[in-house]
Predict the 3D structure of the following.
Amino acid sequence: MVPVTDTPILHVDMDAFYASVALRERPDLVDQPVVVGGGGGRGVVLAANYVARRYGVRSALPMTRVRRMCPHVVVIEPDYATFTSVSSSVMETFREVTPVVEAMSLDEAFLDVRGSTRRLGPPARIAERLRSTIHDEQGITCSVGVAASVSVAKLASRRAKPDGVIVVPPAEVTSFLHPLDVGELYGVGEKTQALLHRFGLLTVGDVAHTPLRTLQRAVGDHLGRELQHLAWGTDRSELTPRAGPHEPERSMGADETFTRDTDDREVIVRELLRLSARVAGRMRSADVAGRTVTLKVRFADFTTITRSRTLPEATDVTVEIHRAVTRLYDALGLQRARLRLVGVRVEGLVPRATVHRQLVLGESEHGWADADRAVDRATRRFGTAAVRPASLV
């Protein structure tokens, strides 16, 4: 049995992200070849679904060439606002698992879960949990590689595609890596691959068993040393938390998918309270507050809408966030609409120290904000189940 601390790095990669998000709104096209990109004469493919890939269609190909390869391909114009929104929700899902998230792009990130295993179980179970949550909440799939280092986790997620999980324990790293072509190593491009092939280094195993000085004479000191680490899976295992290049950094949120679609207001409002408490707690941990509260609802047919309200002052108080999202929900008039998911997000975050609350007439100086902080202290000491609102018990 692999100790849980031996494979703490997860690489989570959305499957055909842009195409998958676009097809959520067009389920009638799921079995057809679909690409996302510019449809004009100079347009290129941003992403292709797996049906289109069977025809050799790949990202970055000119659209004119794609139409020759697959005349019946369906082209969908990119919706960058939706892509960014989905990406932001996915990254929030990652941060529900661990704060150590190194986002590489809109659709992929590395996660260090060594601090989450006591709460959530071994890394493989966390990987399956993430796949299930993303599928339920976003209607798309992802693949996860689990390993001890960044490069091996990246290669494992690639091998797991689509919609799978591959765990590479330390004892199996060499048998996993060494048969691969050198071009599959993380960060090795076509030029480096061609250079290594020219020296007769065709597989990762060839690189691994080449003396370091010989390798450095062939490709240079720095690259030679890096290639040896990659070939043995001994590269970087520490992550640097960072947001994705297009991800809004000044917001926090959480979503929840109901076990069954519901139109019961009491159930929905109770879930909004749970989410409000979760988001507010994270904000207080980060010493930030926000003014714009956003409600997200997803219907049974996956149609999703959001509504926002800007408060007079920035807040990190659970009841104030909950009050705002409840009013947004009631204003939608969805008494008979069955919901699949609800979400709460607070945007426009600022350092908490910069917020100077004005007391409202009749409001105690020590009110809900102090109650929230008392709850925070209790949960830090005794766990998240120690104190909760009565309606959530």
About this structure: Confidence is low (pLDDT under 50) at residues 359-366, 380-387. Residues 251-392 form a domain with the Dna Ligase; domain 1 fold (CATH 3.30.1490.100). The radius of gyration is 24 Å.
